[in-house]
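User: Need the bound-state model for zinc ion:
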Amino acid sequence: MDYAKVTRINLARLLKEGGTARASGVVEEAFWVGEERFPLEGEASWKVAVSSVGGNEYWLSGEVEGVVYMECRRCLKPTPTPVHAHFQHMLRYEQGLEGVVFHEEDEDEYYAFGEPDLDLLPFLTEAFVTEMPYTVLCEEGCKGLCPVCGADRNLVDCGHEAETPHPFQALKDLLPEL
Ligand SMILES: [Zn+2]
Ligand SMILES: [Zn+2]
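Assistant: Bound-state model below.
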């Protein structure tokens, strides 16, 4: 099943004859943005279609779905978080161009590509990571880490007092410069 792990679509036939090209597959282990790793539970699956819309323009649409581990915002536990993202982009074929280049002219946005073998991973990554929530909780009512000793209060009762809000705390939040 190695072919399914290649996140590419070959558009040679589409470029010649028009119509629609389709591909599907999986991304294993993680998505990467620079040095930042977004670890997956199992595999993320994806599928795309690229359709000729006249001239040298093509419409890319697809979806990517998987479960990513995000840290619980209170206790930092890796928490499986389902993500299902859809994406659509205009593509423009420019023969001989190396790689994929993003163009933005007025309201017109498109990606130029010059090789029939198009790498989809950047599109899949952008769609997936953009769809992730900002923060997650491992469960409703996660008790978080103790601010005194750092213990996971879901697992142990370290005996430290839960913080009682200082009466002036609300005022302090209102006027952070004080
Ligand atoms: Zn938690
Ligand atoms: Zn404690």
